[in-house]
Amino acid sequence: MTLIIALKCKDGIVTASDGQATGFSTGGPIRQKIQKIFKLTDNILFGASGSVGTVQKSKEIFERFTQQLSNKFDLDIRDQIRQSLFQIMKNEFDRHKAFHGKSEGAPLADILICIKLKNGNCKIWHITPDCAEEFLDELGYGCSGIGDTFAYTLLKNYYSPEMDIERGKLVAYRVIKEAIEIGAFGLGEPIDIWILNKETGEIKELAKEEIMALDDALLTWRETEREVFKKIYERK
Fold first, then answer.
1. Cα atoms in the Cβ-side hemisphere of radius 13 Å centred on 79
2. 28 falls in which pLDDT band (50, 70, 90)?
3. How many helices (H) and strands (E) does the chain have?
4. Taking the domains of the chain in order of start, what are their residue ranges?
């Protein structure tokens, strides 16, 4: 299971994920730690939820097109990518249905691409399991995977298009952390956070020490909320 989120900030993009996958053995499902966000080039981050195998095949498609995608982010190259992805999804769908006699549970992938364009703008590109596409510029954030409804609920309250990357990292950490603690079965730590900074051009994965600092900041945030609520309640 997976939860991935991407937040468009005024100075770039923050993307985050949980770190657990569910594998299968002859004895039943097993937990595995796994990386879910990948740097493809100096301006592209790839993340996807769904079947591990299908996500891996989807990542290979993007790796095949990274040079063209970095140079020219137009409809033609996007359609080529989606057509290649569609063939993978259709093959997995048909195989699953032929073997199990039903389409439910087919091992598909839901993809979030964070990209910095040559003009300096950053985009969150969402490709659904049926290979439809959408850009999340207007909404400002995207979620993929189990617990996405829970994540959308939190982001509706916490997200602002005026937030910078520093604030975005803390919001992203809180959303993933609370989804793991409360929101959804099959999610787990470690939490992985990446930034795409449009000012410096840097793509960076946060180190363990930076994640620990976010955890300390989250404790302060929660305590502040409790104190504010207490004061509001005491006025009544």
1. 3
2. low
3. 5, 12
4. 3-206
CATH number listed for the domain at residues 3-206: 3.60.20.10
pTM above threshold 0.85: yes
Q: Cα separation of 177 and 188, whole Å? A: 9
Q: What is the DSSP string of 156-200?
A: HHH--TT--HHHHHHHHHHHHHHIIIII-TT--SPPEEEEEETTT
DSSP letters for 88-99: HHHHHHHHHHHH
Are 117 and 71 in contact by the 8 Å Cβ rule? The answer is no
195, 204 Cβ separation under 8 angstroms: yes
Q: Among 19-33, 106-120, 191-205, where is mean pLDDT lowest?
A: 19-33
The model's pLDDT over 184-196, given as tens digits with 9 standing for 90+, comes to 567 899 999 999 9
Query: What is residue 232's predicted lDDT score, i.e. its pLDDT?
Result: 86
- The residue whose two tokens read 């994965």 is 205
